[in-house]
Amino acid sequence: MPAKPFVLHIKPNEECIIERIGHPYCLCLDSNGIYGIDLEKAQKTINKHKYTFMLEVFACLGLLRLQMERGDSHLFLVVAKGVSRVGGIQKREIFRIEEVEMVSFQPLASNSELLKRKKRVTDFLSNGAFYFAFLDNGETCDITLSSERYFKGEATDSRFFWNKSFFSSFIEWGIEPNDWLVKIICGSVEVQPIPWMNRTIKAALISRLSCERVGARFNTRGINDDGQVANFVETEQIIQVGEDLTSFVQIRGSVPTFWEQTFVPMIGSKIRFLRSIEASLPAFERHFRTMTQLYGNIFVLNLLCKRFRLMTRGEQKLSEAYKKLYQQSNLKLNVHYQEFDYHNMGTIYLNKLIEDLKNIAIKQFNFFHYSEGVSSMSQKGVIRTNCLDCYDRTNEVQALLGIKAFDLQLKLCMKGILIKTNKSIIYDMWTRNGNEIPRIFTRAGALKHYSISDIQTRIIRTYCSIGNYETKLQGKLNDILESNTTNIHLREKARSLLSNSWAQMPEELVHSICAKGPQFTCPVPIRIAVGTYNVMGSYHMDTFGSKNINLADWLLGGMKDRGEISSAYNVQNNKDVDMFVIGLQELIPSEYLSIIYRDQSYYYKAWMRHIKTTLQRNGDYKLLTSVTMGGLLLCVFVRPKLFKHIRNVETDTKTVGIFRKVNIKKGAVQIRFDLYSTSFAFVSCHLPAHADQAYERNKSFEEIVNKLSSEFTRDLHSHDYVIWLGDMNYRINTSREVAEQIIREKGWKELLKHDQLKKYQSKGFIFQDYTEAEINFPPTYKYEVGTGHFDTSKKQRVPSWTDRILIKTESSLVPLFYGVSPLEYSDHRPVLGIYDVTAFKVDENTRHMITASTAKNVRTS
Question: How high is the pLDDT of residue 383?
């Protein structure tokens, strides 16, 4: 490869001409697009228009679009200005990117936000973790592929193709990107010679970090609905002797279930499961089906702790969930699962494990062998290793496996002759490799088994966790991986409607395809039951713990004649409910909310057990997910048949008020997900109390809406269905005497004229564009516990509908039932609403045809 094969002729902020040494034509880039021109015309253009800046670069990475908050965007040509040669393997020269330049050929306004984002992208791409390759004849080479897949001529592996979105503008304008751009990977690459007699043995270690589910350390854990896991790395150990080459591939990745890890200063990290085992199983199986298609048989080596340890609390539950998922899956034919408690087992057991893996997995799976231009052997499976973050323990085990494999690889290259070499070179390569991967996200290398340097490593990792480093890092990743479609509403619609590749499509194409959504979707009727209940601090938990509890009166339709909407509705219809969404408020006695170390999970678990038991009486319902905060609980139960159609489940919590850090009584919890291609958001809230605090309630509503829409989460009101439920605490503005008289006459419409919620909604202060089913039932608050009488205390509170369900949608919505139950365990009455809604299922074949035709039309227009 020439020293710098690309020359950029730049007219600042207007045009850029790319000249590639030895290529018959040049490329011209401007605000109108990309087009090719011959060398003679290019030279005339350069001379005529006085291109004042010339830049020689090693490689072009493509075009990056940065979208601004106000809606405009800016294009940059990203180039590798400084590189270092790593080494060569089988006519492939590998280079590390040391310095990146972003060249603007559009008018660059003095925008501080744009300049900051430009700097953070260049800094990230210049961090020494990105690599590309050329063939020894100067042509571009695909480094995303392992040696076996490369020599078999397979297509680019999009999992490791980090600048794929940079290629889209070239494709859009009909320019062959492989003639001008290089494909980069993120990870670690090292090539070292191993001297032996009069021959040189080459050893290479290539780790490719997946870009499919990538994120900062505590921002991204577990799996997504496409079966992609966090911290997924494919590591290839290559040994080359002359023209003989062998390759041994290992993989690592986060535990493939839905979980998250949050960092709590002075306490450590906490693990929380985001979905039940049943809800996680479809994605779990999807992950391993993909792995077996790509690698063959999979040997899973789980290094998580099986016993409680102070520094690893929660690991044993995560390990148990992993094992349960494997046992319930249909994968046992091609996937073998083994646990090894790394921290609690000694060195003797570890060495025995490595020896067993050598005899069982490595020898059975074999290696890839390429000799004299022919592939003579293939690797038939891989070992998949994991610990909690897939760094330290995983590094050590993979290194030991690599050293064991080295002897066998070398013997294969030497035609069966066993030779002795210096293995310390291989071990040092693995050590450096283990440091490079965690440094990308934590700014620190791997831990080294209780050495002095581990203290510094832990301090750096802790600092990155409690500061805003991870937030900034996530912003860099979003800029690079989702550069073409950065309109948040369009991005979320594309995520629901389109395949995984939408993020690499031009924004115009994404918009055009999404607009044709009705052409490739079909309606699916869904019945949802939504319930809310303020349980008054679980005042009667002793009663609820007995067999006399009867939540069926609330949840299973025992409400006939207490708020029917449709005369056609009856109790039997409840058997057709597809989904139950249940929100509880004041779950925990107020005196326990301020006690930090009290186990509040008792109340959550007790209520979840009673809800689950009640729903099972009406059919097979399984927990999708739940979220808690202080006294709030929100949970979703669905029919198991729907699990495989539910994606992108997320939860969030928001406290409100000036003392929100210590007072977690008031606020909201949210669960959102996509069912087929239709998005749902459920918000369960508990707003400030007292009749004279309507202004605070309005303010809290606005605060919750704003907090549930941030830079990295979906805008709340961009969902197809937004359903609010909870103790909203809006009161009736009239006297107690007047209210009781109207209630005796069942004059619900007359009483609603005094309702604060209706009043402020009509003025546009709250719940704009939300609808509420007709209220044909008595107020829900405040009752004397254990009776049907309203408040008899000195305060004589005015009966009010504090517990409500409101829905915002432009899609189909048919209310079937809205009413209360006479449960007397609290000073509130539980409310239930049942609704028929419509979700839209994507026809993948039709979508594929429409995508292809739309892409063709966009290119030619």
Answer: 96
